[in-house]
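Appendix B. Raw example, untouched.
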Amino acid sequence: MDFGVFLPVSGRATGRDTLTDAARRAEGWGFGTVWAAERIVIPWQIETAYPYAEGSAFIVPPDRPFLESLTCLAFLAGCTETIKLGVSTLVLPYRHPLQWAKVATSIDTLSEGRLVLGVGVGWMVEEFGALGAHFAERGAVSDEQLEILQRLLNDERCSYEGRFYQFRDLAFYPKAYRQTGIPVWVGGEGRAAQRRTARYGDAWFPYFVRITPRELAARFDNVRAMAAEHGREADQISLACCLPIVVTDGPVPQDDDRLRGSAEQLVEAVRRFAAVGVEHLALQFMVPRYPERLEQIERFATEVLPHLR
């Protein structure tokens, strides 16, 4: 199993030195990927329920800095050497596909094939409204964008005629750095996201606040079953997952549906996810203040990771 850690792209601690230090420490500590979360604007008033936090309230206050995800990864391409650079997840309807695909292939080229493209359809109605994006059609828009990405990466002369996007006879270079392309990890938890993964994804990449390994594996079985409907082999798609985590000083009562506890408890909890086929865990350490969060990341790297390899 491979592990990733979320970067400090939001909050008062955010800045050049903090971001560089976080990525380099993660690389040195043996994490496989650093992840940049996605947000463009934060409305002062949010009525949309946030699906990724207990209590359903968005966790970043609107007056805190929040850096743009792809910009952060482009910057870190020149500050790191081996660690993969992931976005979790790029909200496809917020940008034109020709624009974000050009940024993505540029990052992939400059990092020599280290980009992991997490993609999603978004959830915040108010942010869609501010950006002039259509919330109700976000799934269909995203599907067209992923079809376009496939053509841009594989065709010499690129054309597309869809409901939302049309273009003819375009050159698009650079393409992916590696012949295998840029890995596309599809975020989202429901049936639509599972079907999108089965059709376009290299990995299913949901974020769950709480889920047992057995429940996660059952949902991934849906993805694998759907893959055949699109002419794909189930083994072409891997299972990854974003999970919140808290490292405690001593043992705490355990639940199968969360990562919380001492180093010894976390080793056993993570092994249960590995046992059902999870190949990558993107860990979001839930301590609000960054200095304490960095301490937890280091503890995981030094006290937990050595037992999982």
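End of appendix B.
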